[in-house]
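R.M. (postdoc): so does anyone remember the format we settled on? I'll just put the structure tokens first.
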């Protein structure tokens, strides 16, 4: 029987035997295509460049690459420029040319990449206008698509419809605007009672890449909702809402609003008198001035009292406290929220005749402990029949 089977196999055509052998041998899998990222290259703009090198690979072979570089437009300047160049790949050499997006300067790139174990080395030159930078960057680790996306900053700083003002501040507005319309948006704010953050006017690398810039504005809390509504209706505005501001919940008081409002407006005189009366007692000082900001709605109170440092000299302490009052949440509400800063104290010789010059090194120390307010917040809460914030329960006491 075995001889018969062997004979039949021998009679099979050679082509059928070869086909059977081919089907039995699995084909090698084609190299998979993946995207990898490098997020730094040493040497560019004295280390001040924000770099993203994106590579498309099949296995270990690079098939395409894009270099995205954001950098200071001028040395020491906050203004940024950027270029994005698709690079030609020839073995381990990456070359390309383009033009910077802001200043329209010619850009040339020639880099050589070299795998070094688990990392990569890049050497070459990048020219921007008349400036040529030598690149020599070692130990560069690459990231997968998922790793790269996980590392990207997510902008969740704009609360379009916050439940209340315990996590965002009632006077702090953020508006995300398309870059091409930012200037017109800002010009429209001229003459209005608002304060635009100077820092938010700087266009950073994230904004250049997103094509959108976030403008931060401080405004009287009573006018914040109307400003947001107008901003949303402005061409080029992508989003507008509240954001973090000066409110520190540890120094906030929530209290019934009816007694302190005339119709829908805050009775500034009545509230400032109530606050200054309480603080005059707790700080053992006399009110010197009381000023409301029409732009931000902040109240600045100044008090004076004799200094206890060498009383015979007759020195004077000037105590400054800022406060902000507004609704405790957007929309209709029967409660208000008051924030009061820690006191700032300066000592000076205000006696008649020649003055004693004084310097206070601790006043410029950013790490200095907040000044004791002598129980001012608790006294204000009692006077306003209000509530303090409980940080352990994240709720009003």
């Amino acid at each position: 029987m075995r001889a018969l089977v062997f004979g039949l196999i021998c009679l099979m055509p050679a082509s059928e035997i070869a086909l059977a052998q081919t089907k039995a041998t699995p084909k090698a899998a084609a190299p998979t295509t993946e995207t990898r990222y490098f997020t730094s290259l040493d040497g560019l703009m004295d280390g001040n460049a924000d770099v993203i090198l994106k590579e498309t690979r099949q296995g270990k072979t690079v098939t395409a690459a894009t270099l995205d570089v954001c950098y200071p437009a001028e040395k020491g300047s906050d203004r940024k420029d950027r270029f994005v160049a698709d690079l030609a790949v020839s073995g381990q050499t990456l070359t390309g040319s383009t033009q910077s997006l802001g200043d329209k300067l010619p850009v040339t790139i020639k880099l050589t990449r070299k795998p070094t174990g688990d990392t990569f080395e890049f050497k070459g030159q990048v020219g921007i206008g008349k400036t040529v930078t030598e690149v020599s960057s070692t130990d560069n680790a690459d990231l997968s698509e998922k790793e790269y996306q996980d590392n990207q900053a997510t902008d969740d700083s704009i609360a379009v419809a916050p439940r209340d003002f315990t996590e965002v501040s009632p006077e702090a507005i953020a508006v995300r605007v398309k870059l091409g319309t930012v200037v017109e948006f800002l010009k429209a704010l001229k003459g209005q009672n608002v304060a635009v953050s100077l820092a938010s006017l700087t266009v950073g690398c994230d904004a250049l890449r997103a094509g959108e810039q976030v403008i931060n504005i401080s405004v009287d809390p009573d006018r914040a909702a109307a400003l947001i509504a107008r901003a949303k209706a402005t061409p080029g505005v992508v989003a507008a809402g509240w954001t973090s501001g000066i409110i520190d919940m540890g120094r906030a008081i929530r209290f019934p609003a009816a007694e302190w409002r005339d119709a829908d407006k805050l009775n500034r005189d009545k509230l400032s008198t109530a606050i200054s009366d309480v603080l005059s007692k707790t700080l053992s000082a006399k009110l010197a001035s009381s000023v409301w900001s029409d732009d931000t709605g902040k109240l600045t109170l100044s008090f004076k009292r004799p200094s206890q440092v060498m009383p015979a000299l007759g020195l004077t302490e000037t105590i400054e406290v800022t406060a902000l009052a507004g609704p405790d949440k957007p929309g209709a509400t029967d409660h208000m929220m008051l924030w009061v800063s820690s006191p700032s104290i300066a000592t000076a010789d205000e006696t008649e005749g020649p003055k004693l010059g004084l310097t206070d090194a601790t006043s410029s120390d950013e790490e200095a402990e907040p000044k004791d307010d002598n129980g001012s917040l608790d006294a204000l809460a009692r006077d306003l029949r209000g509530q303090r914030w409980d940080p352990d329960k994240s709720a009003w006491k």
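R.M.: ...and that's the designed sequence above, right after the tokens. Also worth knowing: The mean pLDDT is 90. The helical segments are 2-11, 14-24, 145-151, 182-187, 205-210, 221-232, 268-282, 376-383.
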